[in-house]
Write a structure and sequence with these properties.
The chain is of the alpha/beta class. The chain contains 15 helices and 7 strands. The strands form 2 sheets. A 4-stranded parallel sheet has the order 5-4-6-7, with helices on both faces. A 3-stranded antiparallel sheet has the order 1-3-2.
């Protein structure tokens, strides 16, 4: 006799954390659009089945691309996914058929984290840190995020990947800093995320490429209040504050945080933003503020040229 797998149910706090959709918005949608349709526990608290959470992830992705809730809330998951794929077609997706990326995904699904760590460390040594970040880490992280959003990876599997990658990246960044030497390196870059952003892999990728350009990096980790970012930037004498925004954030929230931080820091400290969400806000924030990983060398060169001119 076969036993049926238990239904996976998430609390409203879990759904808010995993999709980036506020609790208040979920309640409004429930009344206005009759979706989501949570179950209730014995205390009357909302519990969301996995298929509804997966549908909400795609809804959030479409909202970030500019769609209005009233236009998409009636759609099913497959229809939403098809629309999201068409809407994001302007950005070429990573090649999921790439042998190295496919192997890494299989190791994650098989929970073979020791093998994954060895594989990534070997790739970093063979390719060098720069190509390792741009050719392996960046596309693999996107594939992992897409697989999670499609329900093909569990949350804990995404977390296992993140922990494994962090250990590899930290070792590589430490080695890069030892080779370059940072006692008087400039610019001084403070890296962190705002309180609503809990994903930190983008910070590690940026820190690695900044270290290769000879910048002095100070990382605060994730979810730092704006007042603490300002205080840290002043005490650390930061020339630049670098922020990472994943798809959990909305472009509007990214813009508001960057503008507020610029106002608090004043003209002496630049604010740079990166990540998939920040890319959607490039038009409003400007190309010198919103950077891809490939933009980092040019941005560092621009900063140094400007400050050399001011010093002369």
């Amino acid at each position: 006799m076969t036993t049926q797998a238990p239904t996976v149910l998430s609390s409203i706090s879990d759904v808010e954390r995993e999709t980036g959709i506020p609790k208040e918005t979920l309640r409004v949608w429930e009344r206005r659009y009759d979706f989501p349709q949570p179950q209730r526990d014995d205390n009357g608290e909302r519990l969301y089945p996995l298929e509804q959470v997966q549908r909400l992830r795609v809804v959030k992705r479409l909202l970030d691309l500019g769609y209005r809730p009233g236009k998409i809330m009636h759609m099913g998951t497959d229809e939403l996914s098809e629309l999201a794929n068409k809407a994001g077609a302007t950005t070429p997706p990573p090649d999921a058929s790439d042998p190295e990326l496919s192997l890494c995904l299989e190791l994650i699904r098989g929970h073979k984290m020791h093998e994954l760590r060895q594989r990534m460390a070997q790739a970093q040594l063979q390719l060098g840190l720069r190509r390792f970040v741009t050719d392996v880490v960046a596309p693999l992280t996107t594939l992992v995020g897409d697989s999670w959003a499609a329900g093909k990876l569990a949350v804990f599997e995404e977390h296992l990947y993140a922990e494994t990658l962090q250990s590899v990246m930290r070792n590589a960044i430490f080695a890069a800093n030892q080779q370059i030497g940072h006692a008087s390196a400039t610019p001084r870059v403070l890296l962190t995320t705002v309180p609503q952003e809990r994903h930190g892999l983008g910070l590690l990728m940026a820190e690695a490429l900044l270290a290769l350009e000879g910048a002095h990096c100070v990382s605060l980790g994730v979810q730092t209040p704006l007042s603490d970012i300002v205080h840290a930037a002043r005490t650390q004498q930061a020339d630049i504050v670098a922020l990472s925004f994943s798809t959990v954030m909305s472009p509007r929230a990214a813009i508001e945080n960057v503008v507020e931080l610029k106002n608090r820091l004043g003209p002496g400290t630049e604010v740079w933003a990166g990540g998939s969400c920040a890319a959607l806000a490039r038009r409003q924030l400007g190309p010198q503020c919103v950077l891809d990983l490939s933009d980092i060398p040019g941005a560092i060169a621009r900063w140094r040229a400007q400050h050399a001119a001011l010093a002369s």
